[in-house]
Amino acid sequence: MSREVIALSASEAVARLRGGDLAAAELFEAYADRIAALDDQLGAFLWKSEHVPGPGGGVPLAGVPIAIKDLFCTEGVPTTAASRVLEDYAPPYTATAVRKLFDAGASMLGKTNMDEFAMGSSNENSAYGPVRNPWDRERVPGGSSGGSAAAVAGGLAPWAIGTDTGGSIRQPAALCGIVGLKPTYGAVSRYGMVAFASSLDQCGPLTRTVTDAALLLGHLAGPDPCDSTSLGLPDDVTLPARTDLAGLRFGVPRELGPEAEGIERGVADTFNRTLEVIAELGGAIEEVTLPHAPHGISAYYVIAPAEASANLARYDGVRYGLRAEGNGSGTLLDLYERTRAEGFGPEVKRRIMLGTFALSAGFYEAYYGRAQRVRTKIADDFDAAFGRCDFVVTPTSPTVAFKLGERTGDPLSMYMSDYCTVPMSLAGIPAVSIPAGLARPADGGGPEAGLPVGFQIAGPAFSESRLLDAAYAIEQRIAFDTTRAFLG
Fold it and tell me: N- or C-end of the chain: fewer Cβ atoms within 10 A?
């Protein structure tokens, strides 16, 4: 019975719970047992709940449990952002996105591991150890929402929420063979979400199916008086039902397409097979251009560290979190320095230094100001592309999941993992990654067979329902088994 329960998608579980065929406590305990048995091998959770929910049939989500990235404040529960500087910190309030899910009847399975302060593309930057990919435990799950992605792909949670700054939902979803959605910037409140880069951070779902992503987004989205940047969505999110793509145009940008530099052969081949699926479903495919997209990584790694350097200044050992022991020189500056030296990991320190330099006197306009102008150009490029097509499609990640430790000594190589996802983040538009299949062996090298490849679909701002409708049609035709990593 436990295997049957775990195999249910979140939407199916909601239906079973509301119909009385399944009890919320039974579903929760089935996942709690799997976490207890398997999480030592995956490292997906930093904190696990022992609170078994009561009957939930009268609320929309009916008690279906969810995994929460440890970047969301949860009242009375540790929220560490996977950093020593927030070790044992328990916030006095709950993030709006999480509270909305609780109000809808979701129960919390636990808080998931992540790259420290969401800074990373492999989930190797956590202060509490790396997360491992359920498809191959010697490989990374992607990051920074790697714990959430691994929990869903490994059958430790039916769905999860994460955050996406430059691809941190979509890239781990691709590497773990599940669905990951970055909504339009402002669609979901950021209140109570530990800040990395405030003009880019966005909450979104990681799920097994597109239907689950739509269901979860419908309960996450909405304006929030506590977040002045939150707008919600203009219309209610509808569950996808489209079975064909007739009348829809899909643009393939040559700058981010299968022929772009750095795209592995197995990824390109899988992407091209997905384009054939789109054509079979009646969609039209044409080439578009995003001339400034190749500069996206450069602009992102100025803007995001600059905002991080400001946001992380609050961790000083005075107000909350870690405080360095000993008196040192006895000055306040010494306390700051020792607390941050002990509390922050290498990648966080690297980005703080990069960002502080970019914002320093004499360099602001040369770096930060110029990066913001590139950002505007990238948004304009997408506007022009959407004048010709309904959606832009690209590979989600240039590669399949790479081995643990393979890129830790080469930050530039690690940063390039987000080459295809960063432009959408800079433009603030929604994008979803769906599993397109498994990479096949390539003659003369290339990625190894049997690892998932993600297919990214981006749409204009606030087009989530149309975007998910198109993704659903493609998903149904591909029929990728997202339970394969844990059910075989």
Answer: C
